Amino acid sequence: MPCFRCGARQTDPVRGASPWRRGVLADHQVLVCPACQAAGGWSDALDHCSCCGSAALVCRLGDVECRECGHTREAVRDEPGRAPEPAPAAPSPGADLSQEVAAALDRVLGRPLT
Does the pTM of the predicted model rise above 0.85? Predict the structure, then answer.
């Protein structure tokens, strides 16, 4: 799942906590990359808890739950199974998806990197 703001894709995780943050937008789970977190203002675009106002929401099994106060409500979706489209990502140098996939396959299959 790409970042909902910039469209950046997650890379292979390292051990420990992920620097990516979760949130809920239009009752769909979304991710926020570290760069967008550093830019600020990202939580303003997300849904907030109706009880405590926190943006620390998670969506699971058709419910939206606040991680701050524990308030749970049913997720309301216009089109089931369809998440909002992420913002188009600005192309970055060397960000060709086919190259990323080939590199990941090489790592997984133990092939030498070229």
Answer: no
Helices (H), the chain: 34-39, 97-109
Domain ranges of the chain: 21-77+90-109
d(CA 26, CA 4): 12
pLDDT, tens only, 46-80? 999 999 999 999 998 889 999 999 999 998 865 54
CA-based nearest residue to 27, from 61, 54, 53: 61
Q: State the burial class of residue 4 (Cβ atoms within 10 Å of its Cβ: 0-12, 13-18, 19+).
A: buried
Among 71, 75, 88, CA closest to 28: 75
Residue pLDDT, tens place only, 11-42: 777 788 888 888 999 889 999 999 988 988 88
